[in-house]
What we know:
alpha/beta, TIM Barrel
Amino acid sequence: xxxxxxxxxxxxxxxxxxxxxxxxxxxxxxxxxxxxxxxxxxxxxxxxxxxxxxxxxxxxxxxxxxxxxxxxxxxxxxxxxxxxxxxxxxxxxxxxxxxxxxxxxxxxxxxxxxxxxxxxxxxxxxxxxxxxxxxxxxxxxxxxxxxxxxxxxxxxxxxxxxxxxxxxxxxxxxxxxxxxxxxxxxxxxxxxxxxxxxxxxxxxxxxxxxxxxxxxxxxxxxxxxxxxxxxxxxxxxxxxxxxxxxxxxxxxxxxxxxxxxxxxxxxxxxxxxxxxxxxxxxxxxxxxxxxxxxxxxxxxxxxxxxxxxxxxxxxxxxxxxxxxxxxxxxxxxxxxxxxxxxxxxxxxxxxxxxxxxxxxxxxxxxxxxxxxxxxxxxxxxxxxxxxxxxxxxxxxxxxxxxxxxxxxxxxxxxxxxxxxxxxxxxxxxxxxxxxxxxxxxxxxxxxxxxxxxxxxxxxxxxxxxxxxxxxxxxxxxxxxxxxxxxxxxxxxxxxxxxxxxxxxxx
Length: 506
Ligand code: BGP
């Protein structure tokens, strides 16, 4: 048998994308709750609050808050061994800066975890999944402010203490490296609650991104240390958004561009795992003269709070071309679909630079060797095996956990109510095969696999319902209409067999 006996087959979601009940049980608003829906090329916007007539898809989401008992029963029928979700920070600390937690919020997760454990489903908990308390964003400037470290650690310590006998697997910041492209953000804030001043230059944006990332990494490391003191059995991991970045050609400049791109996007896991900043990054900080607020105490915290495993999401791979060499005289470069536009000042600044600075929107190109989803996400199962090897070699075969993977697609409900989603099965089958090959042939140390959005939920990127990942269908459309009824798709039964056979039967 390829996979370990106790392999954590599961499913992944995030509180704000499925719970709803956005102000129930004294919950405060998070960034996600004040975000409007996007669609048809319109980006999601973070507003000042609740504006009548606008669609706030996360307010009700799929109403898991009120339906969790019947949903968890269905998850048990699917055969899940674990359930990855987040604890909504604003259920516990509605504004984020209070001293005392909200008991009603704590009770909700007690009940939810009890319900999971009743069926032998292990909760796997993300502490922060794109759901910062909105108050911390408006009052403090999000993770651009050092004070956020204390607020986060208080939240983490509170829930880790409360659930120390119910939850063993934790993750600190979901896709912490999703800030790596500081030129593209959810207007007017980023995931970390950063608001760039109007007219901010690329230098100022980049500096703020690194500063916020540093505060998050310190908060994460302190959490790991405190968590291990609360319960030495805790497994506390990082969570990285991994898109393998290939050189577009074997031209040496493209090869070098891919190496630098991997550093710029994935240095976060170096700090999480090794407990210090890599030299390629400190050199870069010096060269750029960022003068970041990094204290000696911070550096000790990073060393003392190394993670137990690396969790990561994998949906697609990228390809990179050294644009300095290939940009045409009118400044035109080819950009991967769905990847925004180049800020003119940045293009002018950096294109002639002698170093290989990575600017995602400028440098990523379409890979003609792979197909893409309707949202331009390039489908590449082998890229997952490549990523598993990259992490394993880099971190000496530390345990890895694939905590997100999946295929966002538009599903059609047939007249008889059935939903056939062979495209989803095909995507998942190919990725599971690639992951099993990595274990069997490459010696990768893999803890588990939790496909994303195994029950349909609100898309984080677009706020749509129609971009579905689920094996469980939820009757709700982009306008928020529908009965919210749950229905099994064809992929439900397929995944059930995969779990039962521990991945032998694909
Ligand atoms: C990841 C996020 C998830 C999830 C997923 C799919 O980046 O961690 O929250 O939503 O991507 O993205 P989307 O919902 O935009 O299709």
